[in-house]
Write a structure and sequence with these properties.
Order of helices and strands: HHHH
Bound molecules: fe (ii) ion
Shape: globular
Number of strands: 0
Largest sheet: none
Helix content: over 70%
CATH architecture: Up-down Bundle
CATH topology: Four Helix Bundle (Hemerythrin (Met), subunit A)
Structural class: mainly alpha
Number of domains: 1
């Protein structure tokens, strides 16, 4: 069973952002599947790298749009992105050095973070973009 189920509730109504969020959900579900399967550390590490890489790409997409449309709440939003990136990079290092595993707690953290961020900050940003005619 998937960790996160995509539903319309998670849609923010901006096509490019929704597509990237769906891809992120897929990647996090993939990481969860590898964890459940008890896959080896080097595999987990590679799968986590891919999640981190795509997350970075996604944050860049949103932040470019913030700059393009002069989003007034960009500082707070970017700060949330930076916090997650720092946490993820820290986890990558711990995993690579053998000081941590990807646990169910890690997965729930990622799930909560993503859902909370999409429903809060990303929805607010998407509403702003829609007010500027983006769809
Ligand atoms: Fe965001
Ligand atoms: Fe997002």
């Amino acid at each position: 069973m998937s960790l996160i189920t995509w539903s319309d509730q998670l849609s923010v109504g901006i096509t490019e952002i929704d597509e990237q969020h769906q891809k992120l959900v897929q990647l996090i579900n993939g990481l969860h599947n590898h964890m459940v399967a008890g896959d080896a550390k080097d595999i987990m590490s590679k799968v986590l790298d891919r999640v981190v890489q795509y997350t970075g790409f996604h944050f860049e997409t949103e932040e470019k749009l913030m700059q393009e449309y002069d989003y007034p709440a960009s500082a707070k939003h970017k700060h949330e992105h930076a916090d997650l990136v720092n946490t993820a990079v820290d986890l990558q290092h711990k995993l690579k050095s053998g000081n941590a595993h990807i646990t169910m707690e890690t997965m729930h953290f990622l799930q909560d973070w993503l859902q909370h961020h999409i429903l809060g900050s990303d929805k607010a940003f998407a509403d702003f973009l829609k007010s500027k005619g983006v769809n």
